[in-house]
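Quick one: structure tokens for this chain, please?
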Amino acid sequence: MKIGVLGSGMVGSSIAGKLVSLGHEVKMGSRSATNEKAVAWVKSAGKGASQGTFADAAAFGEIVFNCTAGAGSLDALKMAGAQNLRGKVLVDVANPLDFSHGMPATLFISNDDSLAERIQAALPETRVVKALNTVNANVMVNPGRVPGETDIFVCGNDAGAKAQVTRILREEFGWKNVIDLGDLTAARGTESYLHLWLRLMGALKTADFNVKVVH
């Protein structure tokens, strides 16, 4: 499969690297086609890895992952181009974190809205699925870093898109327990969970943790 990954940071590199290692062709997109982090990632990832602009990666991918920092996601997706994302599944991994007042970060969108919903509103012909934003980048692609079976969440307005993302989470990334929370308004909950996640990271002194829903 051809996959576009928007963002060259830790999240983008982790997801893109995992997908390349599984035999997929992955193009990492950045503001510049010669982004230093993207170039370095291509060299380290090897066969199947390439880099380009946000628009290049969006056009290349049969499915696209938004791994940009939340504060810049809408601008990045505008650069990616609605025409390049039309009809495609966009997995939104970003969180609306505001670090301007230090740590722990706050959310610049919350309660009655979410970053995922704003992305869907900006790209009405794209099938947005919120996923993976409740765990650290390393745990996203290797849930076994956390002992036992823990849970990951998906939400979105398109059932077929959620089913496709769920298959990737299970078959490619190794998540056994994927909970469908419903439509995209559920992203308000998974994004707001970052308030607790950041506090847990501080208390546990590690980012290798996750939650298990027991019922």
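The longest strand covers residues 25-30.
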